Amino acid sequence: xxxxxxxxxxxxxxxxxxxxxxxxxxxxxxxxxxxxxxxxxxxxxxxxxxxxxxxxxxxxxxxxxxxxxxxxxxxxxxxxxxxxxxxxxxxxxxxxxxxxxxxxxxxxxxxxxxxxxxxxxxxxxxxxxxxxxxxxxxxxxxxxxxxxxxxxxxxxxxxxxxxxxxxxxxxxxxxxxxxxxxxxxxxxxxxxxxxxxxxxxxxxxxxxxxxxxxxxxxxxxxxxx
Length: 225
Hints:
Largest sheet: 7 strands, mixed
Strand order of the largest sheet: 1-2-8-5-10-4-3
């Protein structure tokens, strides 16, 4: 794939920067289609019932790794068939079904790849980009994902460019204050390098490390064939 450069004085039509769009309104998710946006976040307030069910689930298991192809019409049935732990979690099941419906509607998909995972350690502990068009990420319980603003990243330090050093040593960011963090319940669309025109603008992000003895419940939705 040919890499598309970001804007320069010779190529002014491509935005030189990428930005986050963040709002308490779910309609903010449509901003992911704007060329200059590489992160769109709906600050979703979780209900008391949903928070209670997530707490019960995290107390019940530390080994949930659920993965299904979910259609908007069959999400709840698919979840319940995949894990008995979700059968008595109506608020959680309905919330997940709503997000599948929103994701599929936004991107005109018939189904989405849904993963629901309980984590007690960072899944992707180093800052990285996803080589896909776009992924929905939502931490429903526990500490949420971290990201770096586009203008705060030294992309030469991604991957092998870090020379095996940890993020705080590699120079991928300058100051600890550069690191931004989503909130529990946030519904985030992370634009990757597979999005046409965003090859050099993919969101740089990482999984947080839960404190000792703590777990997190992570939902991701992806494009599937």
